[in-house]
């Protein structure tokens, strides 16, 4: 049985960690390098770093900050934001990233998924899908959740797998920051209909929510931000709870 992964997320804006609700009203959540080191020491399985305004502001991810984070952690490290070419990914890899996460650029140019997979391997490529429930269906959003795309989320999740993605980072914008639980039904549909790992994101508010997304949502990993940043839940306590609930995690 594969272990379920707990992944803190560092949403970065102007070099600082931020967190909002439904992708809006961002507030400062601390120094990303310090937080990364804390999470690695506490037993996080991986770390995700998203430069959330890179695409909107048409600039590249802060490679120097990526390098500084990579130097203080010893766990897999995924970086996203403004990546639109093999060259962009190469820079991040050279600065310490283990994987890249693409979203807006993948929607605009699906071939980028295949190109990255061929160049670096499928395991290097995470496709982030930001989704919101609109007109009785789940639809993909890009540009930090600002732009609705006429792509059904479930269809797109299967398509990115076919194109060579190694995993999916699924964020429910409706659940993001609200702390009422993950989008378990949607996560389960995507997890059970695909053959690549799904990281669930958006909605974590307590330990039971993590249990539910693993047992009901069939997620391979669960990502959260504010509950870790603001010390509402510690990673060691969360993993202890999950183990007691018969969820297989790395202690």
How would you portray this structure in words?
This protein has helices spanning 32-42, 63-70, 86-94, 104-108, 111-120, 153-163, 184-193, 207-215, 226-229, 235-244, and strands at 5-13, 16-21, 24-30, 47-51, 77-80, 99-102, 125-134, 137-142, 147-152, 167-172, 198-201, 221-224. By secondary structure, it is of the alpha/beta class. It has a single domain (5-244), classed as TIM Barrel (Alpha-Beta Barrel). The chain has an eight-stranded parallel beta barrel, surrounded by six helices. The two termini are 15 Å apart.
Can you tell me the number of structural domains? 1
Average pLDDT across residues?
90
User: Which structural category do the helix and sheet elements fall into?
Assistant: alpha/beta
Given this structure, which CATH class is correct?
A: Alpha Beta
Order of helix and strand elements from N to C terminus: EEEHEHEHEHHEEEHEHEHEHH
Return the CATH topology.
TIM Barrel
Shape: globular
Number of helices: 10
- Which strands sit side by side, in order, in the main sheet? 1-4-5-6-7-10-11-12
CATH architecture: Alpha-Beta Barrel
Break the fold down into its secondary structure elements and pairings:
Layout: E1 5-13, E2 16-21, E3 24-30, H1 32-42, E4 47-51, H2 63-70, E5 77-80, H3 86-94, E6 99-102, H4 104-108, H5 111-120, E7 125-134, E8 137-142, E9 147-152, H6 153-163, E10 167-172, H7 184-193, E11 198-201, H8 207-215, E12 221-224, H9 226-229, H10 235-244
At a glance:
With 251 residues, this protein is of the alpha/beta class.
């Amino acid at each position: 049985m594969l272990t379920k992964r707990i992944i803190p997320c560092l949403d970065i804006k102007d070099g600082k960690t931020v967190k909002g609700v439904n992708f809006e009203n961002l507030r400062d959540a601390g120094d990303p390098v310090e937080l990364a080191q804390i999470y690695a020491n506490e037993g996080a399985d991986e770390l995700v770093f998203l430069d959330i305004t890179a695409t909107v502001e048409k600039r590249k991810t802060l490679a120097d900050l990526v390098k500084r984070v990579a130097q203080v952690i010893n766990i897999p490290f995924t970086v996203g934001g403004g990546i639109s070419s093999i060259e962009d990914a190469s820079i991040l890899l050279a600065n310490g990233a283990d994987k890249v996460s693409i979203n807006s650029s993948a929607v605009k140019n699906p071939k980028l998924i295949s190109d990255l997979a061929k160049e670096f391997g499928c395991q290097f490529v995470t496709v982030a899908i930001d989704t919101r429930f609109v007109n009785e269906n789940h639809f993909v959003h890009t540009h930090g959740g600002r732009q609705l795309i006429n792509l059904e989320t479930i269809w797109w999740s299967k398509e990115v797998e076919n194109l060579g993605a190694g995993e999916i980072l699924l964020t429910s914008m409706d659940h993001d920051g609200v702390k009422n639980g993950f989008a378990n039904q949607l996560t389960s549909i995507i997890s059970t209909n695909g053959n690549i790992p799904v990281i669930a994101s958006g909605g974590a508010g307590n330990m039971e929510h993590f249990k539910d997304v693993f047992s009901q949502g069939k997620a391979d990993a669960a990502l959260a931000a504010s509950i870790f940043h603001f010390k509402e839940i510690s990673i060691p306590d969360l993993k202890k709870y999950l183990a007691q609930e018969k969820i297989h995690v790395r202690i």
